[in-house]
Specification:
This protein is α+β, with helices and mostly antiparallel strands and about 325 residues long. It has ten helices and seven strands. It has a five-stranded mixed β-sheet, with helices on one face. A two-stranded antiparallel sheet has the order 1-3. A hairpin with a 2-residue loop joins strand 6 and strand 7. About 15% of the residues are buried. It holds the Pfam family His_kinase.
Length: about 325
């Protein structure tokens, strides 16, 4: 729609401003009296030539390598232009002076070819600009579609990972006949309801996402004994700030997966801070067991790719392991300065 409006504005600019100004360079006052038919034919020719170029779109034909069509079109237009140079002179301008007649005819020819070059140059320049604009928009749309597809894939990968981990927790509670099993199933149903309610949304309020993390932590607490302490810290200046759903869950899952013990004292710290559009999320846990492979986990790499699509050049994700503590620190510039 926007492109159509721009095209209309350019056509109006040419028809109502540029061409009338160029035509005023001619001896219009004399031609309109003595050479009216030629003046009318010239004006019709100029506008017809312009809209012929606009309709055919030579720039697109050139990019599509349809050179034969371009050659045929230019041959036809040049032929019509050449024929117009032989437009008959009115009887009132005929004279026996051959040099004067030749001068008038030469002036006509120069005028016609001048308009041909002006309209051709302007039309090709405008059409080339529009074609480049269309190509840029097409590439941006393809890139956007690719990004949306990748985001959907990453989000789809998060959900099964979360479900399997949580089902294992519920299985353990049920197997041990824990008194917390019923409460755990209630919390799990709330978490599932949240997940599927937000599945198709690109952004949600930070308060909803943080409440989801709290529900997950409460669910994990039900299966842990007194050896594992959980500390949650938060400082949020605007709970309605929009964030992508399921953004933090991978880091929290990993903290519980590798940082809990039923025999040794350990602490898991989860913190979030939002101030003036800058979001900082962090986790810290004692390393109670290691990942079998040394390479980064799929979940973290998945999150990194998702962040690259959502916040290119506006986030920093750091992970480190030092003196038996594993730390994650994610900083996002949610609002561009």
């Amino acid at each position: 729609m926007k492109h159509n409006r721009i095209t209309l504005y350019v056509d109006l600019l040419f028809c109502l401003v540029i061409m009338p100004l160029v035509i005023t360079l001619l001896p219009v006052d004399r031609w309109i009296v003595h050479n009216t038919a030629f003046l009318i034919a010239l004006v019709i020719y100029v506008y017809a030539l312009y809209f012929a170029y606009r309709h055919v779109r030579i720039a697109r034909l050139f990019m599509q390598k349809r050179y034969l069509e371009i050659i045929i079109l230019m041959a036809v237009l040049i032929g019509i232009t050449a024929l117009l140079t032989h437009f008959p002179m009115p009887e009132s301008l005929t004279t026996t002076d051959l040099r004067q007649m030749a001068a008038r005819q030469n002036m006509r020819s120069q005028t016609i070819w001048f308009f041909f070059l002006v309209v051709t140059g302007f039309s090709l320049a405008i059409e080339l600009t529009f074609e480049l604009f269309r190509q840029i928009l097409a590439r941006q749309e393809l890139a956007a579609q690719k990004d949306r597809a990748e985001l959907a894939l990453y989000k789809a990968q998060i959900n099964p990972h979360f479900l399997f981990n949580t089902l294992n927790t519920l299985y353990a509670l049920t197997l041990s006949k824990s008194d917390h099993a019923e409460s755990a199933f209630v919390k799990f149903s709330n978490i599932l309801r949240y997940m599927y309610a937000q599945a198709d949304r690109e952004m949600i309020p930070l308060s909803d996402e943080w409440e989801y993390i709290r529900q997950y932590v409460d669910l994990q607490r039900l299966r842990l004994n007194a050896h594992t302490q959980i500390v949650i810290e938060e400082e949020i200046d605007n709970e309605r700030t929009a964030v992508p759903p399921m953004l933090f869950i991978t880091f929290v899952e990993n903290a519980f997966k590798y940082g809990v013990s039923s025999e040794k004292d350990c602490t898991i710290r989860i913190g979030i801070r939002l101030r003036e559009g800058v979001l900082e999320f962090r986790t810290e846990n004692a390393v109670m067991r290691h990942r079998e492979e040394k390479a980064p986990g799929i979940g973290i790499e998945n999150c990194r790719k998702r962040l690259q699509l959502l916040y290119p050049e506006r986030f920093e994700l750091q992970t480190s392991e030092l003196q038996g503590l594993y730390r994650v620190r994610l900083t996002i510039q949610l609002q561009t300065p």
